[in-house]
What does this fold into?
Amino acid sequence: MTKAYKDPDFMMGLEARPLRILAEYLEPRQRLGEHQVRRSIIFFGSARIRPKAPDAVDASVDYYNEARALAARLARWTTDSHEQADRYFICTGGGPGIMEAANRGAADENRSLSMGYNISLPHEQGSNDYISEALNFEFHYFFMRKFWFMYNSHGLVIFPGGFGTMDELFEVLTLIQTGKQAPIPVVLFGGHFWRRLIDFDLFVEMGLISPEDVRLFRIVDTVDEAFEYLKTSLESEHFDHSQTEFPKA
It folds into this structure.
């Protein structure tokens, strides 16, 4: 006789799917609590972006090293300015490209603040090498991964990316717009890319969003601009989450 929870065929079968989903809620919740992760700044962006090269996504901008520099600056700021329990962790999807760049920048300053929510995919490698071992997560379900991205997110930086990045961007904007997520500063890095890709004003012109909805995010072109906007926003009363305790309901 084998106990049900020790039976791999059952645990990986259809009927046990709710248990696997629950595990991807409970284990991160426990680990984040143990390591006092109450605040994070999320970096989204393409896994395909590498350091500036002739075949780069945009050869005119070194998005990889811009992401690395911004993450390093944020990690240095929070290390110098906040007690351990109030620090902002740099969180990514854990993979290559922009995710690697942000984790690398955080690790340049304080590796313990470098966090990754990786997901198992058939055509991508595992976690990058710059994530704190204690905060290196692996998910199977996209929706549970998205839940944890937003659970203690206090800021968001989105670099150029593909379908996955667009999915993450518009889900976050929808959550903030509908009040399901508390307001947080959202930075779209790379004005040339974002203004060419999405005509946000057209949404307003056609009455599909409200004029104030275009103020849910800020388009920036430099590390200095992104850092100052995030720092000022996180220190302001409008974005004050200082009373937030882990875990939230």
